[in-house]
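We read letters as residues; the fold follows as tokens. Both lines appear below.
***
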Amino acid sequence: MSTVPGAAPRAAGDGAPLVGVLALQGGVDEHLAALADAGARTRAVRLPGELEGLDAIVIPGGESTVLRGLAGALGLLGPLRGAVEGGLPVLATCAGLVLCAGGPSGGPGVLDVDVRRNAFGPQLASFETRLDVEGVGADVEAVFIRAPVVVRVGPAGRVIATVDGRVVGVRQGAVTALSFHPELTADRRVHRAFVERVRR
């Protein structure tokens, strides 16, 4: 049995939530595997029709302008925004956070936050650390790759994680957005907490 917190898989039965992963760029397979370990049924989402029937969606990392361009070309941005505004829970990581913030990224704009892209430096400045994430736990493994930081959080938002005083995790309604990549570690607590919130 694994000694990594949150790593023990659970069987995804018929009552398990169906969680989509926006499958345009980034750690799609890694998110799908982490969600399955957390007890969810999963679906890769590339077309608007694949949003139907989802209980939640993950918007992974990558490059935010490329993600926006691909989602726009495939007709996903409008339906995705509508689904999230309708209450579909979201876990957004790294570029997914930028996309959810909208603004210059042209994304769905479902978070009232401002972000600064590549706030920790270029690819060579990537790093791993452990941090506390509200609603998830202490000492959560986190991988930062050209990561953004949140520089303003609107009144509806809540800061749930920081690194050296910089905001790297926020929650607003059913949207949880993180600057880092939880899918690139063996620590499944972020995905387990997300799946549990969806179940509730």
